[in-house]
Amino acid sequence: MIVPNTPAVEIENLVKRFDNFTAVDNVSLTVNRGEIFGFLGPNGAGKSTTIRILCGLLRPTAGRAMVGGHDVYTQAEQVRQTIGYMSQKFSLYEDLTVGENIGFFSGVYGVPREVRAARKQEILKMAGLEEQERVITGVLPGGWKQRLALGCAIVHEPPILFLDEPTSGVDPMARRVFWDLIYDLSQRRHTIFVTTHYMDEAEYCHRLALMYRGRIIAEGTPAQVKRGEASMENAFVARIEEEEAKAS
Predict the structure, then answer these.
(1) Which band of pLDDT confidence, cut at 50, 70 and 90, is reported for residue 25?
(2) Closest alpha carbon to 121 in 109, 106, 136, 107
């Protein structure tokens, strides 16, 4: 459960090093409850490393990270009970049916047995997979696997959801449908922390941060980050050029 009167996510001077490489370099940010917060940047910027720290999958080198009011290092079990996590590889068992995958993750996340059947039907309806319950997951198109993976990640109704590159490798129509599902979750007061390298997806977020070489180089609403630029991509390139000029 979330500790009352605390942000959904709070990071202060977070650092993660791998030998001589700094993947996350002194990152600080706060995500409010019910927000869709976008973490944007190119591949290798440090987005996935940050999200894995927040999910308790990696230990930070320095700094502090709180999720739902719980410290990710000293209270990892409380963090895991508070969150749902969806990786870019979807984490599904492709030799199981759609229904069997939902049932498996219901057990993993500790959904009470007496409500599992009802939750399965809710997830199937949310994902538009009511007619696919007995279909082997491995034969599903990418967009359907994506929606199933999201359903499995929220089967236990977590208040905070981490999505790591969830739209990678799916077509534009599937991406749009997926973001409709994210909006619906946000309206039901779930907090969504999503990483992506698609700059156009920034417009779907309430607030966002641009990450480059392990550091946050811009943060705010989409309009604030764009600063009058024609597109988020143009804004990102402009911010990178500013950072490179500072370093030279």
Answers:
(1) very high
(2) 106
Task: Answer whether residue 134 shows pLDDT above 90.
Answer: yes
* Cα(125)–Cα(34) distance, integer angstroms: 22
- Residue 230 pLDDT exceeds 90: no
Residue for token digits 């939750």? Answer: 119
If one counts every other C-beta atom within 10 angstroms of the C-beta of residue 172, the result is: 10
* Burial degree of 35 (CB within 10 A; 0-12, 13-18, 19+): buried
Please give the angle made by the CA atoms of 193, 196 and 200, to the nearest 5 degrees: 110
| N-to-C CA span, the chain | 46
pTM for this model (two decimals): 0.92
For residue 194, what is the enclosing H or E element?
strand 191-196
Contact 60, 18 (CB under 8 A): no
- Please state the φ and ψ torsions of residue 228, each to the nearest 5 degrees: 85, -5
Per-residue burial over 223-239, b = 16 or more CB atoms within 10 Å of its CB, e = otherwise: eebbeeeeebeebbeeb
Q: Name the DSSP letter for residue 118.
A: H
Task: Determine the Cα–Cα distance for residues 87 and 48; give it in Å rounded to an integer.
Answer: 9
CB atoms under 10 Å from CB of 244, counted, come to 11
